[in-house]
Amino acid sequence: MEHRLTLFLLGAFVFFTSVTCQHDNVCFRPELQDNIELDGIQRYFNPGAELPLSCKQGYTPMSGPRKIVCTASGQWTKTKLKCIPKRCPYPDPLSNGEMYYEDTTYQSAINYTCHEGYVLTGASTAVCQANGTWSATVPECLPVACGLAPIPEFGMIIYDRKIRGNSTDYGVTVTYRCLPPYVLIGKARGECKADGEWTEVPKCRVVTCPPPENIDRGYKSSNDDREYDYKETVKYGCHGDYVLEGSLQVVCQQNGNWSEKPSCKGPCRVGIDKGRILYKGRKLWIKDLKPNRILHKELVSVYCKDEARNCGYAVPTQCIDGKLKIPQCFEEPSSLDYTLHSGSLPSEIEQC
């Protein structure tokens, strides 16, 4: 009995060993490159078995062959099959908007946005699908709509283009005007904004200015003690040798005030008693300047001496509202030099 049991166990071992040996050269389920797939779930394949290869959904086969064979050595034959992503057509441009994408291959995405003042109608994103088409058509960017422009009281509006219906699009502009005698206060131009609202509407009102004040040492063209209308003007002038500085006239402004008034600037006396000056292109002895005065902003030059080079030179100075500064380099000569030796004065010797 013991002998029979031993033979039975030994026979079983030989059978197990024989089955195992038959699988020494089988091919295991192959590991394929990305995007290549094969059907079924079989894990082991005998030599000579063929496996058809295909591309995953959304990919197109390139190069071949499209099958592999299990060899006697338990290895699969090589394949150069490549699966490249399918490509969708380039999208149409988006009017009044922008689109952002890096590629048009399978699973690539396009993002759409609209410019300021426009609203996106349609899908904001499209994805390239496995069949080579986009998941959504190109959307539209439609302009934001405003109502009709508000009309100011005592005023009117003029549209820059023809308007139909009771709405206007973003960017439409108008011009505001007031009916006489009203004056427009605010901006004369209006626009439909990106938020669907109009810019601030100006107002129409009557504007007057009080009687303008006179200026020192001057006069004005009108002394009427009355209210002056918007944009009415009054002119000014100066008495005698005074010079008007600023605008010749003032204007009644939108805020009910006059524009800035001018002023009258006084003449200057040349403050030297002996010497020669250069005035309006002429050399004059100071005693010959009659009367001794130059007007506001006029230039006069006195003569100084360069001791090192023994030559003279003219130094200009300007009259500013009655004040004339004599340059420090000027030295007034003595009465003797001025009377008997005038040829030695800086104005008479060789000029530097």
Salient structural properties:
glycoprotein, signal, Complement Module, domain 1, secreted, 352 residues, sushi, 8% helix, mainly beta, 4-stranded antiparallel sheet, elongated, disordered N terminus, 3-stranded antiparallel sheet, Sushi_2, 33% strand, 5 domains
Task: Give a short summary of the structure.
8% of the residues lie in helices and 33% in strands.
What would you note in describing this structure?
Helices cover 8% and strands 33% of the residues. The protein is mainly β and 352 residues long. The chain has five domains: 22-85, Ribbon (Complement Module, domain 1); 97-143, Complement Module, domain 1 (Ribbon); 145-205, Complement Module, domain 1; 208-265, Ribbon (Complement Module, domain 1), CATH 2.10.70.10; 276-344, Complement Module, domain 1, CATH 2.10.70.10. The strands form 13 sheets. The chain has a four-stranded antiparallel sheet, with no helix packed on it. Strands 9-10-12 form a three-stranded antiparallel sheet, with no helix packed on it. A hairpin with an 8-residue loop joins strand 9 and strand 10.
CATH homologous superfamily heading of the largest domain: Complement Module, domain 1
Helix content: under 10%
Question: CATH fold name of the largest domain, please?
Answer: Complement Module, domain 1
First-last Cα distance: 149 Å
Order of strands in the sheet with the most strands? Answer: 29-28-30-31
- The number of helices is 2
Rg, Å, rounded: 51 Å
Largest sheet: 4 strands, antiparallel
The number of E-state strands comes to 31
Low-confidence sequence ranges: 1-22
Number of discrete domains: 5
CATH class value of the largest domain: Mainly Beta
Quote the beta fraction: 25-35%
Q: Structural class given helices, strands, pairing?
A: mainly beta
Global morphology: elongated
**Average pLDDT figure:** 90
CATH-derived architecture of the largest domain: Ribbon
